[in-house]
Structures are given as C-alpha cells and as structure tokens.
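Morning!

This is the sequence you dropped in the shared folder:
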Amino acid sequence: MQNAFLNSRALIVVAALVTAAATISAQQAQKKPLDIYFLDTEGGQATLFVSPSGQSMLVDTGFPGNQGMPPAEANAPGITRDADRIMAVLKTANISVLDYVVITHFHGDHVGNAAELAHRIPIRHFVDHGAYTVEMQPGRDAAFLSYLPVRELAHVSVAKPGDRIPVEGLDVQVVSSAGETIKEPMAGAPGAGAPNPLCRDAKLMEQDATPENFESVGIVVRYGGFRLVDLGDLTWNQEHALACPNNLVGTMTVFHTTRHGDPHSGAPQFVDAIRARVAVMNNGERKGGSPEYWQTVHEAPGLEDFWQIHRSAAGGADRNSPEQFLANINETDHGHYIKMSVKADGSFTMTNERTGFTKEYPARGKAQ
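The structure's back. Tokens below.
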C-alpha cells in the first residue's frame, strides 16, 4: 500500500516536472523572434523564414548556376552562386534541415537550385502547384526537369488555395496556386471581406505572355498581429481577383512585392488595399524594379518604408529608395541580404546586412 502511494507521488512529481518543462519551453519559444531573410538572387527569389519554434521554411531557391548576371560572369563554369548564398545564410541562422521548401512556380529564377540544395541539406517537405509546368519549351524547362527527381525524395504537398502549410509557430495560408485564388475572405484577417472602392475604376491586363507565372503559389504568413504576403510572380489580374470587389486577404504588415517589381503585376487596387507598413522588393539591378511599379508601391497608403534587394538601374535617382534601404547598390559588391526579426507583440526590426543599418518598427498602437 505504501509502495503504491509512493509510486503515485512519484508519478505526480514527474508529471509536474514534464508540465513545467513544456511551459518553460513554450515561454522560451515566445521570446524568440520570427526571423526572415530576404536573399539576393539577382532578381530571382529565395526567402528564408525561421519560426520561433526553430522550424524553417524557404520560399524559392534562386537562379541555377550564375544566371541573371552579365554574360562574362553568367557563362563561368562550375558556379553555384545562389545556392552558395542560401547555404551561407542557413549557416548564419543555425539551420541544418529545411523543414519546408515552397516552390512558387517553375521558372528558373525560383526553382533553379532545388536540386542543388537537396544534395547539400536535408529537405523534409516540398510544397508546389503540382508536378507540371506550362512552359516546356527548350531552354525554359531545365530547372523544372532537374527538380523532379529530388521532389520525389521528400514529402510533397500540392498546394490549393485555402490550404495551410503547418510550420510550427506560424500560420501560413495558401491564397493562390495552379491558376486559382481563394474565393472567400481569410478568416480572422483584419480588413478581409471589406468592399474595395478602388475596384470601381480598376483596369485589367491582357493575358500574361509567360503563363507559368499564373500558376504561382502565393502565401500569407502570420505571426501574432504580423502578416506578410508573398505572391511569387502572380499576375496583375490575379492580384485583382484577391482584392476585388472585396479585399479577400485583408491588410498586411509587409508586402513582398509580386514578380520582382515587374509592371505586369502590382495592380494598384491590390497594393493600396493591403495597406502594408513595409514593402520589400526582390529585384535585380537590371531585372524588375520598374519605375512604374516602384511609384505604385511608394505611393501606397500606410507605407512607411520601401526596402529593395538591389538598386534598380531603370529607377534612376527618382525611383529608388534611399541608400540605407538598398541591400545592394551595384553589380560588383553584391550578394547582401535584408534581415527582419519579428517579436510576438508584432514589433519588428529590419537590418541591411551590407551596411548594418537597422530600423525598429514598433507594434501597431504604440508610439511611432
């Protein structure tokens, strides 16, 4: 009888210790920020999310080899520029396994290093729009074809609008995939479902000449009151579908600009409706970053700052952000990234890795 009592007491103590350990672990996770790294892939995309839980999500993998550079550099043999840059940031972030790799679509500047990375680091899950591309012309399908064999080595999820990507500690929702967008307002999203007066005179564009963009997996990442939207290379008309006649995605903290700042995206009825505090453009010096797109984002209501991965040659003196907000300012000293760290209360900091310039953004409702 006494042994049974002692065993019962021991079980209670063990249970209490386990509960206390779990509570401490949860509290420690809450103290850790969400870290986001916007990498330089010379006008492609590679964005790393490191959740407070420690899980990681990489959105896209940049150009294969040395593409996107002047011919003398682009044709240099044995180059794995963007893969090297991604691996360097993974090391900085203490990431030894990629829990999720989201491939927005199968253009080479997005899926280009999926195979190379899979040979360098374990990848647990791929998320994409399905194992096909609508652009199988010679010269446009090489990166996609290199991806298919490594895709089979991980767990694969084919994204559908409304799905969630289960990154522990984050709410990641798919808003577009395989040519479709969500049809209902996002539950719990501030401003979602509100009529959008900008739709009244909104214009649409002709069909995109590069239809694989139309397939892009677009996501909204939420951490507490912080919200970031990344639509890959989605088209102007699909942005319109997300914003008109009602704003289906609501307001955002960060707008990761669509299609590198190409004027075939960036519909004002979408850009203005999301009222982002900060925009980040993943352009190259000579790719994306169009003056028209820059002006649309720059004039968007609620925007505090516009960060760019590169100074845009096309933007000149008038349509580029101040230098402290530019990660890369020329084609010789490049490869620098922008880091964002988000606290649970919604406040965040942004750091230009090239210069060390850091700016703090208080949580909404606090003194600005």
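Headline: Residues 13-29 have pLDDT under 50 and may be disordered.

More detail when I'm at my desk.
O.
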